[in-house]
Amino acid sequence: MGLAYKEIENKRIIADDEKCNGCLVCQLRCSFRFEKAFNPEKAAIKVNRFTKGGTDYFISFTEKCDACGICAKHCPYDALSWIKEEKEVA
Ligand code: SF4
Ligand code: SF4
């Protein structure tokens, strides 16, 4: 358990799997973005159980994740955070 994150340019998505409840809303929302269908298998975020039937989870992001933040917006347990740093204007 711990923090997993993915960083693309000025955006970062961070997962705190201690807070995760395994609801899979994040996977559904992510897959809908890419596939226009709710299919957790197609999501760029993976929520895995440590043990079969257990309630501890660990989260990872695949190569496909571009840190768009949609999953964080919809996580009902505040387990995902999204940060976008504004670029400095010269
Ligand atoms: S940040 Fe975007 S691409 Fe990455 S897992 Fe979340 S919804 Fe999917
Ligand atoms: S939406 Fe949040 S609580 Fe639900 S599985 Fe994803 S990270 Fe875990």
Q: Can you walk me through this structure?
A:
The chain has 90 residues and is an alpha+beta fold. It has a single domain (3-84), classed as Alpha-Beta Plaits (2-Layer Sandwich). The chain contains two helices and five strands, in the order ββαββαβ. The chain has helices at residues 25-35, 70-74, and strands at residues 3-8, 11-16, 45-49, 57-61, 80-84. It has a three-stranded antiparallel beta sheet with strand order 1-2-5. A hairpin with a 2-residue loop joins strand 1 (3-8) and strand 2. It is globular and about 55 Å long. The mean pLDDT is 93. The structure holds iron/sulfur cluster (2 copies). One iron/sulfur cluster (SF4) binds next to helix 1. Residues 13, 30, 33, 44-45, 61, 65-71 line the site of one iron/sulfur cluster (SF4).
Q: Notable features of this structure?
A:
two-stranded antiparallel ribbon, three-stranded antiparallel β-sheet, single chain, binds iron/sulfur cluster, Alpha-Beta Plaits, 2 helices, 90 residues, alpha+beta, 5 strands
